[in-house]
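I am still getting used to backbone structure tokens and would like to learn alongside you. Label the sequence line and the structure token line clearly, so we can match residues to local backbone shapes. Go ahead whenever you are ready, and we will take it from there:
>
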Amino acid sequence: MNLDHIDKEGKKVATVDVSEYVFNRSYNESLVHQVLVSYQSNARGGNRAQKDRSMVKCSTRKPWKQKGTGRARAGTAASPLWRGGGQHFPSSPEENFTKKINKKMYKAGLRSILSQLAREERIAIVEEINVDEPKTKSFLNLVTNRLSSTTLIVCNSIDNNLKLASRNVPNLFIITPSELDPFTLIRCKKMLISTEALSEIESTFS
């Protein structure tokens, strides 16, 4: 399996032989869906809260007598059947949304996505991207010809200058190989991998 190696002008200058095991797998849609759902579920936090009938602040007086009114029996205004009453099964901040997925399945799902990106020629290899000063203009001089609508750049290391110089560029994500995740891979239109990061990706997913 070969990937294009491009220069600063975005032109192909050579090809790089990459691991067939990582970049030439069949696309498993059901596995990718399962990996993506589990990733998003595990990133979800319990940030909502509702009240049950014991938490609702209201009078504890019986609304009306038990018999003789012709209306349904009622014991408290905090009943979930009443407007302003508590919830039957309230949400709480302790609610757990995690979905377990095996490490082998997670890595297999990422290999499947990487392989599909390679088949669609949306992955290119570049030299390590470094800037001498935290200036967006300096960063754009290095990558402008290699960017698309949504670009993911994978570098072996991200120093403070690179982080500050790239954070104002829209639709651009810079991560290290250890931070690869299915959601970021799927949303990117183009992926640039540095030569040093490529070897780390191959060793991690092989």
In short: Helices lie at 20-23, 29-42, 103-119, 136-143, 160-166, 182-187, 195-205.
